[in-house]
Specification:
This protein has twelve helices and seven strands. By secondary structure, the protein is of the alpha+beta class. Pfam families: Sigma70_r2, Sigma70_r4_2.
Length: 285
Amino acid sequence: MGTHRTSADEVFQRERPRLLAVAFRILGSDADAQDVVQEAWTRFARADVDSIQNVQAWLTTVVTRLCLDVLRRTHELPQRPDELPLPESGNEPEEVVLLAGELTEALKVVLDELTPPQRVALVLHDVFGTPFEEVAHILDTTPGSAKKLASRARGRLRQADGAARESGEARHVVEAFLRAAQQGDIDGLIRVLDPSVTRTADPQALPDGAPQRLRGAQAVIGETRALRSSAERARLAAIDGRPGITVRADGELRAALVFHIAGGRIVHYDVVADPRRLTLLDIED
């Protein structure tokens, strides 16, 4: 029994960073994400682990359904017509995804406007590359309906994102940020960061216990200085056609920073470090 439980704990700890990333992207709260993942561990510890054929899929399902419960409870949302499974048709939306830059700037603005199923379908498929068949299983609907939920969510986000396009100076801003981060230049960071800047990040990019969201220039500057050694390995890159930063170690891509620039300053950036998310990015170093 002891060996079995140790093995289960090792399996769960291996999956934990990704589960935290999924829960945070759906819920938008570090505390809620931690609570959901802890509850998932409790259920996993009680389960017959040997009978679970695909542990990652099982855990993702549990975490996502717990997130749905939190969303519906928090927002007191009854089931609405556009949450219901939709009839199949011969004209299903294409399996296109939002680019990382659009997700970075749009998700944080209007995620709360999406219904819980739309939110789940968009985050799982567009952010983490989860096949619609798996999304459909989690939402207890059909793949076609899951596609339509994601398509509706994209439509809402793109509508909100329509005017948010970076100017040609974005590359210069990202260059200045990288240079200041590498040099530990506080004044340089202050010049390029919006006072209310937010930083989101996958747990794989953070020290244990660090929040997945930081807000405010001083908090971001403090973290940037603490992670200066990582900044020294960073390089400018084009990510989905937009200026960004990549961090490599031993020749392998470890993280990608996707920026939203407005008014000549960084208002938000996302540190992508989840391996599944990294594979979805179009990166040109």
